Amino acid sequence: MTHDIGLMEKTEMYLKAMVVIQQSVPPVTTSKVADFLKISVPAASDMIKRLMQKGLVLTEADGGIGVTAEGLQIALRVIRRLRVAERFLADVLGLSLEKVYEEACKFEHILSGEVEERLVQFLKDPMSCPHGHPIPCVNGRLPFEYPATTLAELKEGENATVFSVPEEDADLLVYLTELGLLPHVNLQVKRIAPYQGPIFLLIGDTQQAVGRDVAARIYVTPT
Q1: Between the chain's N and C termini, which has fewer beta carbons within 10 Å?
Q2: Which residues, in sequence order, are CB contacts of 106 under 8 Å at separation 6+?
Q3: pLDDT for 85-95, tens place per residue?
């Protein structure tokens, strides 16, 4: 029985990783899954093959990796538990943003349906996690879609509001918190340095600089 529980959790972890990657930094590749889960590429490749045999994962026409309808429903249930737990840890327990993901991951496989829904009621049915990502509804649908624009795609002079930041990268979250570059924050692109240089932003009364690789992982809503 213990082995079965361990395999179920592992399956959920992989499917969650693939759906999160598809939503935030597509396309899904074996190396991205390995990086997300902090494991080796061969180990990720082996598990992905197993999930394909189970009918939970498939190869996309462009050569990338996708999840089947069954795999998606499993992933969204896990993501719902994860992000509800994140909301509780941040809003009620006051855990700092860079810590909530890792702690919430300990809850995502063990919360019962009853406890999950009690938390949802207590939190007044939140639609997003502290990082700005949507919390799937109980029926498996997302309450809203990601915007199509990242910070890296804005032009000089454009204004925007931060929609979401990566939830799993604690070091990056510490850095973004120091910059004040967090969900719901308004900003303006002041200057884009040439030759792939940094992007200079005005956040409140403060000018900050952010690299383009980081900017590409931050979704924004142009205003």
Answers
A1: N
A2: none
A3: 999 999 999 99
